[in-house]
Amino acid sequence: MRIMQEMSLMEKLNILSDAAKYDVACTSSGSNRRGDGKGIGNTVNAGICHSFSADGRCISLLKILFTNECIYDCKYCQNRRSNDVPRASFTPDEVCRLTIEFYRRNYIEGLFLSSGIIQNPNVTMGLLYQTIYKLRTQYHFQGYIHVKAIPGADPELIRLTGFLADRMSINLELPTAEGLSHLAPNKHRKTILTPMRQIQNGISVSKQEVALYRHAPEFVPAGQSTQMIIGATPEHDYEILSVAESLYRKFDLKRVFYSAFVKVNEDKDLPALQGGPPLLREHRLYQADWLLRFYGFEAGELLSEKNPDFNLFLDPKADWALRHLEQFPVEVNCASYEELLRVPGIGVKSARRIVQARRSSRLEYQHLKKIGVVLKRAIYFITCNGRQMYPLRIEENFITRQLLGIRENLPFEKDGVTYQQLSLFDDRNFGYDGKQLVQPESAWRGAVG
């Protein structure tokens, strides 16, 4: 550990903003609190941290650690105790100054504040509380604040911080307790889940009080979230998604974030990652997470013990549809909203538009395109007024090839056969019937789209 003395504020900022880059648990604010005219800043539902607001603006936040000093020695963490890296710590006033100066220059609209554990959880949580308290009361900042709750800290410190922050999060770190004890021996699952439950209960009580008393203070109005590292331990996607589903149901989380494991330390207990960080796997988990939260799917529908990992070539929704072709095609003019949500190429907005539009008229394929349906994916799973857009076979291998773009076939509506341009290297065994080249049926069946 190298503790650098007498650093400038800019030097600290460079170190502690870089140290925060592996924490992905920040996104749109999710709360709606307007400024009262006496301070600066405000929070809107639109979003923070390189997100797009309802009016099209791209907005961001200042994302830093309060300190990268840490008493823990988690094997996957860049800031672990045993690493020889430059160390720095802000003071509460320095964080406030940075936030205000960045806001005044229109660089940010909010703050994401996390921290390593300095001395013990209580000291760390106390410093975070002091920072947020000063920012709200002395600097009169009314913008978005997302702060990390420190597991093991005094519940009263977490409660007080919750009345000042918009969102709080506690990192689950790893999907299972076994993985946590193996790679982060100083951390315990119970210590993490206890403050998570406290925040959940505090949010529930706060909502009841606000409903009764208009000016009652709100506790974590934007809800809580968590983060899991993916690929550092050998869990399958089914286990990870089941954990996320359980967290949504039991703790009312707003969001579970998945962070592809990046190997920043050399340790015999860490995987080699020959192909680099599992970014595609992370992407599939985010897609599946979206299906859990907005499309009515359950983890057991998408994966199982016999099929524990996602298809890396197909997104989870398309993969599910191909495994349940008995439920398709769906007639868009009479299918329920829930049935429409399960069609690849139809999202939440387009499903709502379909339900609304068909009240006044029967829909055709040209209407679906204007509504926002991705027809190049949906045409294999829907009918309009009892007919397909093209004569297509509802068959798993055929649809899979089309979705993967293996063949670019042109639909031919008269005989149901599709054709493709041949290259010089196609082996087709053509014959000649005296008038033209003829391909045997056994050969052209393989080219049918």
Describe the structure.
The chain has 449 residues and is an alpha/beta fold. The protein folds into three domains: 2-224, TIM Barrel (Alpha-Beta Barrel), CATH 3.20.20; 323-406, no CATH class; 418-449, no CATH class. The protein has helices at residues 9-19, 92-104, 121-137, 155-162, 177-183, 189-212, 237-251, 279-294, 299-302, 316-323, 337-341, 348-357, 365-371, 375-378, 396-404, 441-444, and strands at 2-3, 51-52, 58-59, 62-65, 86-87, 110-114, 144-148, 167-169, 224-230, 255-260, 330-331, 382-383, 431-432, 437-438. Keywords: Iron, Iron-sulfur, Metal-binding, S-adenosyl-L-methionine. This is DNA modification/repair radical SAM protein.
* Assembly status: single chain
Estimate the global geometry from the Cα principal axes. globular
Largest sheet: 6 strands, parallel
The portion of residues assigned to helices is: 25-40%
Beta-strand segment tally = 14
Helix run count = 16
The order of strands across the largest sheet is: 4-6-7-8-9-10
Mean pLDDT: 85
Reported CATH architecture of the largest domain? Alpha-Beta Barrel
Overall structural class, as computed from helix and strand content, comes to: alpha/beta
Radius of gyration: 27 Å
Please give the alpha-carbon distance between the first and last residues: 62 Å
**How many domains in all?**
3
Low-confidence stretches: 44-49, 51-57, 408-449
H/E series, N to C? EHEEEEHEHEHEHHEHEHHHEHHHHEHEEH
CATH fold name of the largest domain, please?
Answer: TIM Barrel
Beta-strand residue percentage = 5-15%
* CATH domain class of the largest domain: Alpha Beta
GO molecular function: catalytic activity; DNA binding; iron-sulfur cluster binding; metal ion binding
Pfam family, one: HHH_3
Organism: Gallintestinimicrobium propionicum
GO biological process, one term: DNA repair
